[in-house]
Amino acid sequence: MLNFVYEDLNRGIIGKKELKHWILMGKYWFQNIKTESTDSDFNLGHEILKKLMLPQEGYSDDFRKWLALNDIIDRDLVVDII
Questions:
Q1: Which one of 24, 46, 59, 72 is least enclosed by Cβ atoms within 10 Å?
Q2: Overall number of domains in the chain
Q3: Residue 14 is part of which domain span?
Q4: Distance between CA atoms of residues 53 and 36, nearest Å
Q5: Containing H/E element for 26?
Q6: Dihedral of CA 65/70/72/77: which sign?
Q7: What is the pLDDT of residues 63-73, one digit of tens each?
């Protein structure tokens, strides 16, 4: 979903007000799995997110960087580009 938001932002379809909403929503969605955790479920989520953020999964470098720079995901998940 956030990838669509990012694409719409680049196309000028959504404005800054809507963007702020989506960034907050993304932070909420990923708040418990952003970093490694002692909780096994959260840690599993973090490992899955780490795999999803690999370049070969198909998300653009710009999108992955955007996620990290907006603190939606941790920068350690995209160290290959930041």
A1: 24
A2: 1
A3: 2-78
A4: 15
A5: helix 16-30
A6: positive
A7: 999 999 999 99
